[in-house]
Specification:
Blueprint: H1 3-10, E1 18-20, E2 23-29, E3 39-42, E4 48-50, E5 61-63, E6 82-88, E7 93-98, E8 109-112, E9 118-120, E10 135-137, E11 148-154
Antiparallel strand pairs: 1-7, 2-6, 3-4, 3-5, 5-6, 7-11, 8-9, 8-10, 10-11
Length: about 160
């Protein structure tokens, strides 16, 4: 497959969060609004919320679309709804939410932006904030105008 074909395929809108690779599924009640593609974390109340520490350590919990209920990647979960979570193994490719204003090249390291989205590790306020790389950019993108799903490879 030539690079133009791949480039065009990756620019289309995502219909699913999972692209390829292995992952396990869990279902947990939402502590607040959760958007498919968000990096999530468990709370002490056994609910799930958007990952809240910029550059911080994270279990790889990715909010998935609720396809069994006929919901698309654009449909948010509300507080108390059961969220379908994917726990991907390293190498799995998923469409994850990238923070507004971010840019990345293929191969750039992505970390938690502290709000459930990912950001380029080079854009952290301080290098000491980078405790854990979550994913690697599989497609390049320039200055996003809003939180946007982009293809990443889980590390």
């Amino acid at each position: 497959i030539d690079s133009l074909h791949l480039k065009g395929r990756r620019k289309m809108a995502y219909r699913t969060i999972h692209s390829k690779g292995d992952y396990r599924t869990e279902e947990v009640a939402a502590a607040g609004t959760i958007t498919p593609g968000m990096l999530c974390e468990m709370t002490s109340a056994a609910t799930v919320q958007a990952h809240s520490t910029e550059g911080g350590r994270a279990e790889r919990l990715v909010a998935m679309e609720d396809a069994l209920q006929g919901r698309a990647v654009s449909t948010n979960y509300s507080a108390s709804e059961i969220v379908t979570l994917g726990l991907p193994v390293p190498g799995t490719e998923m469409a994850m939410l990238i923070a507004s204003g971010e840019s990345a090249n293929i191969g750039d390291e992505l970390v938690s932006a502290g709000d459930g989205t990912l950001k380029n590790a080079s854009n952290l306020a301080s290098a000491s904030m980078n405790e854990q790389v979550i994913a690697i950019a599989v497609e390049s993108f320039t200055t996003l105008s809003e939180n946007t799903l982009k293809l990443v490879r889980i590390v």
